Amino acid sequence: MFTIMRQASRGDDVYEEDDSVRSLEARVASLTGHEAGLFCASGTMTNQLAFRASLLVPPASVLCDSRSHVYRYEAGGLASHSNATVYPVQALANQGHHLTVQDLEREFIVDDGDVHMAPTRLISLENTLDGTVMPLHEIQAIHRFAKKNNVRLHLDGARIWNAATAIGCNLRELTTEFDSVSLCVSKGIGAPIGSVLVGNKDLIKKARHFRKMFGGGWRQAGGLAAVAHWCIDNVWPTMKETHVLAKYLAEGLEREGRGAKVYIPVETNMVFLDLSGSGIRLSELSRRLEEEKGIKIGNRNAPESQTQVRLVLHWQISKQDVDAFLQVVQDMATRASPRFIDKSAEDRKGKFGYLAK
Ligand SMILES: *Cc1c(COP(=O)(O)O)cnc(C)c1O
């Protein structure tokens, strides 16, 4: 990757003069079935620019899944940058697997002149969401619903590469029906930095203007764009193996963890683990993984009450790494014999050898 970065163009992207950036933007636009693209520093920026460029006149509201990144993890940017309010929608059908038209209909606010309301102007979907894939037929149904009601449709496709890989379809089948799509190049496909926003030329022109206003115009971004190209060519094709490995990890955790549960279906590269039935403490698992195997899962300081953790696999994780992980789980589960299974962690904290160690 460093060789590619060294050889990349050094144009000034604020003046749209960098060849690597322009070709990356054109390539992602073409892959997704859109007119134009804009390469930015982060996925939060591409989501927020899409909203800002779409919601020009308040009052406005946005509908999105209550678990979605744009609602929970972007520091309230929709309110701050776009003067819009969000109605988070609960997915009620299919055990909450994904939003449906019925879910959206429940919360939709018609623009009928009622001065109390902020009419729905935009629907934002996320795919994958918690590693699960939104079915194509649902995207198409929501697209028809959005058109019929004359509202914009945005996709937070930070992990859309994973969704296309899981379904085995072209990226564009999952992206053309949206007015704007944000795709991350630094998550699943492993580039150092960045996200690309795609849409029609007018939207991208507006987003570029706002990007400059927000201080996100960057100059010699060519090295980053060149390496993103490389990752699309070389890392994306390996994604299927990563998904297989995630399933292998999930099965191993349920087998070796003796009561450990994977509580969201593993459809791509994420494994959501619940240790509450296993007698294994998350903080201890995290510490032992790091000390014994050099594996960091980032919950070393987890409070005693925390029993759930998200594990995300990437292209540089091997089967040996996963086996090393499972070995630690197996070892801990064996010692956490049923007698010691911690039914009330708060009461018994530290009383048993395996807990106090
Ligand atoms: C990571 C992520 C983002 C934001 O990306 P950053 O580059 O971290 O700002 C947005 N949406 C989803 C679904 C993500 O996973």
Automatic annotation (TrEMBL):
The modification N6-(pyridoxal phosphate)lysine is found at residue 187. Keywords: Lyase, Pyridoxal phosphate. PANTHER family: L-THREONINE ALDOLASE (PTHR48097:SF9), L-THREONINE ALDOLASE-RELATED (PTHR48097). The keyword Iron-sulfur does not apply. GO terms for molecular function: L-allo-threonine aldolase activity. Belongs to the threonine aldolase family. The gene is GLY1_2. Residues 1-274 form the Aromatic amino acid beta-eliminating lyase/threonine aldolase domain. This is Threonine aldolase. It comes from Entomortierella chlamydospora. GO terms for biological process: glycine biosynthetic process; L-threonine catabolic process. GO terms for cellular component: cytosol. The keyword Repressor does not apply. Its cofactor is pyridoxal 5'-phosphate.
